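Practice problem 4.
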C-alpha cells in the first residue's frame, strides 16, 4: 500500500492534548508512533510526541527526499534526569538497501544539552564543526569523535542531510543567538552549527526519519520540510506530498486535496530571479481551482507577497486571474503568445480576471519572474500543452498556448523570489515535474545566464538613466536607474556564467 492510499487519522485538538496511536498527517508527511509513544496534533499546528518508555518516538515517511528539516521546541531539561536524550536519525539509500545515514542527539548533561552527531553510512568518521553567528564564523573544531558541543536548550531547526562539495553535512539552526561551547574551544555566541564529515561521501535519498527519546516526557515538532528540486517543501492543509526519483526524473506528488482551497504545497528556496513550476496534464472537467502565490524580498523586506495567478474551472469554463496588489500594482498587462510569437497585448486591466477559456483547459506550467528580463516587470508566464482559444477581458478571442501577465506601475521593487505556495481545490492529485528556482545571476542584463559584452553594451547604452530603468536596461540593483553601482556590479562578475 502506498502512502497516498493509506488512511491517516487526523486529530484536531481545540484546547488540550488528546492522544492518538494511529498514523498522522503533519506537513504532508505520514507520521507513525514508535514503541509505546503517542503522537498528537496540538493547538498551533504542532506535532506532540509523548514518551511512555525509553526509545519511544515517531517515524516520519519522507518517501525519496533529498533531505529533511525539522523544527523542535526547546526540551524541558529541568525535570529530566541526567542522560535524557532526543535522537534523530536519517535512514535512506546509499547505493542498495535502506540503511541508517546519519543521526543527531541532544543529551541532558545536568546543566545544558550535550550535542552528538554521527555519519553512520561512512563508518562514523571524525567530524568537523563550525559555529556561525549570522554569516560570521565565530568558532570551529576539527577531527572530533565524541561529544561535539554543549549548549542551552533552545528551539532549533535540524537539517538532515545535505551534501556540500562532496561532503555530508548536518546543519542546526538555533532560534536565537546562544552560548555554544565546541569541544576544546572557548564558549562563543552563535545561531548556526554546521557539522561536516571528515570523509567524503554521498547518498541517493532520505527515506525515513526516526526521532526517539528517553528520559524526557515529550518533545514537540513545530515544522517539517522535505528537499527536492533544490528547494524545501511542506504540505498545506490536509494534503499529502510524496517525493520520487532523482535528477531530471524527480517528481513531487500532491494528493488528498479537498474542496476547502486550503490544501496544497509550499516551497521555499534560496533567493532567486525566478521560480519554475511544471506538472503533468490535469484532465478533469469538473469544478476545481489551482492558485500559485509567490513571495520574496520586496523593497528590502523579506517574505513579502509578490503576486499570484489562479486558474478556476467552473461549469461554464475556465477563469484565469492574477493579482499584484502586494506590490502596489492595481492594473495588469496581459500578453498572448503562440509558439513564442506575440499575438496580442492588453494593458490597464483593473479586474483580477484577465481571460476566460473553455472547459477542461488546465495549463501545464508557470514561471514566476522578478522582474522578467523581457520588460523589467514582475509577472507570470503560464503555458498550455497546445493552443487554446482564450477570450480576453477586452478585445477579440485569441488562439494561444502561453499567457504572460505583469503588474503595471508597482510602488514596490521585487529584489528576489524565495517561496511559492500552491493551493488547490477539488483536484485529487497533481504530479509536479518541476518546482525549482532560477538562481540569481549577478550582472546578467539580457537573461542568457552569461555576463559578457552584450550585457555591458546594453548597460553603457542606458548609463545615466535616472528613472524608469529595468533590469533589461542595466538596472541591476532594482532602484530604477542605471548608474555607477550597476556598472560596478557588472564589472565585478564580467566574463562569468551562471
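Answer key:
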Amino acid at each position: 500500500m502506498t502512502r497516498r492510499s493509506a488512511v491517516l487519522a487526523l486529530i484536531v485538538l481545540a484546547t488540550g492534548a488528546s492522544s492518538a496511536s494511529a498514523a498522522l498527517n503533519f506537513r504532508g508527511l505520514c507520521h507513525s508512533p514508535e514503541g509505546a509513544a503517542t503522537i498528537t496534533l496540538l493547538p498551533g499546528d504542532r506535532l506532540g510526541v509523548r514518551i511512555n518508555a525509553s526509545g519511544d518516538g515517531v517515524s516520519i515517511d519522507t518517501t525519496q527526499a533529498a533531505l529533511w528539516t525539522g523544527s523542535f521546541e526547546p526540551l524541558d531539561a529541568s525535570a529530566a534526569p541526567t542522560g535524557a536524550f532526543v535522537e534523530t536519525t536519517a535512514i535512506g539509500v546509499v547505493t542498495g538497501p535502506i540503511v541508517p545515514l546519519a543521526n543527531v542527539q541532544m543529551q541532558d548533561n545536568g546543566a545544558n544539552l550535550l550535542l552528538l552527531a554521527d555519519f553512520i553510512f561512512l563508518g562514523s568518521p571524525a567530524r568537523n564543526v563550525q559555529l556561525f553567528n549570522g554569516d560570521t564564523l565565530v568558532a570551529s573544531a576539527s577531527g572530533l569523535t565524541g561529544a561535539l558541543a554543549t549548549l542551552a536548550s533552545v528551539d532549533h531547526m535540524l537539517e538532515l542531510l545535505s551534501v556540500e562539495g562532496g561532503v555530508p553535512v548536518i546543519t542546526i539552526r538555533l532560534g536565537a543567538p546562544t552560548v555554544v561551547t565546541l569541544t576544546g574551544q572557548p564558549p562563543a555566541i552563535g545561531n548556526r552549527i554546521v557539522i561536516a564529515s571528515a570523509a567524503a561521501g554521498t547518498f541517493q535519498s532520505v527515506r525515513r526519519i526516526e526521532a526517539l527519546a528517553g528520559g524526557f516526557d515529550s518533545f514537540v515538532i513545530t515544522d517539517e520540510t522535505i528537499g527536492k528540486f533544490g528547494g524545501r517543501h511542506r504540505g498545506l492543509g490536509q494534503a499529502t506530498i510524496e517525493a520520487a526519483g532523482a535528477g531530471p526524473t524527480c517528481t513531487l506528488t500532491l494528493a488528498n486535496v479537498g474542496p476547502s482551497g486550503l490544501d496544497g504545497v509550499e516551497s521555499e528556496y534560496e533567493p532567486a530571479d525566478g521560480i519554475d513550476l511544471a506538472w503533468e496534464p490535469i484532465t478533469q472537467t469538473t469544478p476545481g481551482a489551482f492558485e500559485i502565490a509567490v513571495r520574496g524580498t520586496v523593497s528590502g523586506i523579506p517574505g513579502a507577497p509578490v503576486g499570484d495567478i489562479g486558474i478556476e474551472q467552473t461549469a461554464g469554463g475556465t477563469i484565469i486571474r492574477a493579482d499584484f496588489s502586494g506590490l502596489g500594482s492595481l492594473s495588469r498587462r496581459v500578453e498572448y503568445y503562440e509558439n513564442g510569437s506575440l499575438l496580442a497585448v492588453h494593458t490597464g486591466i483593473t479586474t483580477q480576471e484577465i481571460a476566460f477559456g473553455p472547459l477542461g483547459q488546465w495549463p501545464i506550467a508557470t514561471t514566476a519572474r522578478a522582474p522578467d528580463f523581457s520588460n523589467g516587470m514582475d509577472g507570470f508566464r503560464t503555458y498550455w500543452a497546445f493552443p487554446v482559444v482564450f477570450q480576453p477581458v477586452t478585445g477579440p478571442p485569441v488562439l494561444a498556448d502561453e499567457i504572460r501577465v505583469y503588474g503595471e506601475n508597482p510602488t514596490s521593487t521585487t529584489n528576489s523570489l524565495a517561496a511559492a505556495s500552491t493551493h488547490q481545490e477539488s483536484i485529487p492529485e497533481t504530479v509536479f515535474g518541476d518546482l525549482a528556482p532560477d538562481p540569481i545571476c549577478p550582472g546578467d542584463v539580457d537573461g542568457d545566464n552569461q555576463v559578457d559584452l552584450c550585457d555591458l553594451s546594453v548597460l553603457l547604452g542606458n548609463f545615466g538613466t535616472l528613472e524608469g530603468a529595468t533590469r533589461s536596461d542595466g538596472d541591476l540593483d532594482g532602484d530604477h536607474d542605471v548608474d555607477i553601482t550597476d556598472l560596478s556590479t557588472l564589472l565585478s562578475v564580467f566574463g562569468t556564467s551562471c
